[in-house]
Design brief:
Layout lengths: L1 H21 L2 H20 L14 H10 L27 E4 L2 E5 L12 H14 L14 H13 L4 E5 L3 H11 L5 E5 L4 H10 L2 E5 L4 H17 L1 H4 L4 E6 L11 H11 L2 E6 L13 H4 L12 E5 L9 E5 L1 H10 L1 H4 L6 H16 L2 H17 L5 E4 L6 E6 L6 H17 L2 E2 L1 E2 L14 E4 L6 H23 L1
């Protein structure tokens, strides 16, 4: 056996020697140099260590550094920033409110149907408070679902003529959670550039490709849709897995005008995109029964069947807290596990759900209030047309009215300062107004404005007096500017 192993080893060794002798000379030299370099690195190289030690501070130097150190503020407020001056309300809000200790005609609160302070709603909330307590102390999926939540969702779905509704504890995350629940990275969203901040945060959270079209400009929207159609034709494989959405507001908070829903639906079917509508303002305002923009265009659109998702607020017309989304069961059920604001926020306090149901009942029993609200909104706008230096923006049926300068001062800050002077002057005359406020990271800000809110509880005398006070305040503030 030993003889056989020795013979095999000699044979292999001889073969190796033969290969080496047959190799080119430069190949042998290169391999030899590599072997020498590896041996050098292993045997002689050492890791670098600094021989110098950092100088140690004395106790006195440490105390001096600590004494001189100044922490940076969490929020920087410089000369170019103004701190928001908040007025304090005491007591219930209605057509009049107690502001900073005096009674004022209230054109600042979004209490469109005048349901704040309604005794029937207060009694429902009080009864619910006695039964359930104040809060819910848990998200909907973790013992935060009460029977009143399910009943309110059922009533909202029936009121909106949809299959299902989902309730959020706060209106802002309703649309901000709904958008990223459906649209993901790589999907495409076509959005009006005038949308509110909640929609903007939803777009950001979705990480989708966002294409903005000019406010209520359907030609610009179709131009973007055609461009996307050409891109899809060039890359059909990618197009098959890319979802496309359109996101608009029913009645725009920042402009007071109504979206052209019939044209949007036409484009939806022509270019095969999904349509989401935020009805934060239009719910409880537009339509014969307050169902919003789909009812406003009844006869021109096929109601909710033409819209994939509607988000709406319980914080304006309904005079409660929270928001909801409604649509088909297939669409809405997806949010129960994918809507961040639904899954991870404590649910709506039961007393507020009971208050919303009572308000919804009043809306159904008194549909005449919606016509009355729109008539008063139109009445106020007609009175404001004559105000010198200001022009009225918004649809005549909108309870939100924006007053903007006809002639800008040359800067946004200057325009805001002039409008704030008008607001302050009106407050001296016991009329509470507010300038529209925006955060610094909001996109596509509209021009500075005074935002007025009409309430169905305002009398025509109230609105006429408000218009007179605004007219006089504008004349006083803007007259020196024109001279």
């Amino acid at each position: 056996i030993t003889t056989m192993v020795t013979a095999q080893f000699s044979s292999v060794y001889g073969a190796v020697i033969g290969v080496v002798l047959e190799a080119p000379a430069y190949h042998l030299v290169l391999e030899g140099l590599l072997i020498v370099w590896i041996v050098y690195l292993i045997a002689f190289s050492r890791s670098y260590r600094s021989s110098s030690k950092p100088d140690e501070l004395t106790r006195g130097e440490e105390e001096e550094l600590i004494r001189d150190w100044q922490p940076e503020p969490l929020v920087r407020v410089g000369n170019d920033e103004e701190v928001l001056q908040t007025r304090i309300v005491s007591g219930a809000i209605g057509p009049y409110a107690q502001v900073d200790g005096k009674k004022c005609l209230n054109l600042a609160s979004l209490n469109f149907l005048g349901l704040l302070g309604n005794k029937e709603i207060e009694n429902a909330a009080t009864k619910s408070l006695s039964k359930y307590g104040v809060g819910s102390c848990g998200p909907r999926g973790f013992y935060g679902t009460f029977d009143v939540h399910l009943e309110l969702e059922k009533q909202l779905a029936e009121f909106m003529n949809t299959e299902e509704a989902i309730l959020y504890a706060y209106n802002f995350p309703s649309i901000a959670s709904a958008i990223p629940a459906y649209s993901k990275r790589g999907d495409i969203i076509f959005v009006d550039e005038g949308v509110c901040f909640a929609i903007q945060k939803g777009l950001q959270a979705s990480r989708s490709v966002v294409r903005r079209f000019r406010h209520n400009d359907m030609e610009d929207l179709e131009k973007l849709l055609k461009q996307q159609q050409l891109e899809d034709e060039r890359n059909p494989k990618k197009a098959r897995v890319t979802r496309r959405f359109m996101v608009v507001e029913g009645l725009y908070m920042n402009y007071g005008d109504i979206c052209p829903l019939p044209q949007l639906i036409e484009l939806k079917y022509k270019y095969k995109v999904r349509l989401f509508i935020d009805e934060t303002v239009s719910f409880g305002v537009l339509g014969a029964c307050g169902r919003g923009v789909t009812e406003h265009f009844v006869g021109q659109v096929n109601g909710m069947k033409d819209v994939d998702l509607i988000s709406a607020s319980l914080e304006t017309s309904v005079a409660s807290v929270g928001g909801f989304c409604c649509g088909t069961s297939y669409v809405i059920d997806h949010q129960r596990l994918s809507g961040i604001g639904y899954c991870f926020s404590a649910s709506l306090p039961p007393l507020l759900a009971s208050a919303a149901m009572a308000a919804l009942k009043i809306m159904q029993e008194h549909p005449e209030m919606f016509d009355e609200l729109r008539e008063k909104a139109e009445f106020l706008q007609k009175k404001l047309v004559v105000v010198d230096g200001l022009h009225v923006t918004g649809d005549t049926q909108s309870p939100i009215v924006h007053l903007r300068l006809k002639k800008s001062s040359g800067s946004r800050r200057g325009d805001e300062a002039l409008l704030q002077q008008i607001v302050d002057k009106a407050f001296v005359d016991d009329v509470a107004l507010t300038c529209a406020q925006y955060l610094h990271d909001e996109m596509n800000l509209p021009p500075a404005s005074i935002r007025l809110s009409v309430c169905v509880s305002h009398s025509e005398d109230d609105l006429e007096r408000a218009a007179e006070v605004i007219c006089e305040a504008a004349r006083t503030v803007l007259k020196p500017q024109s001279e």
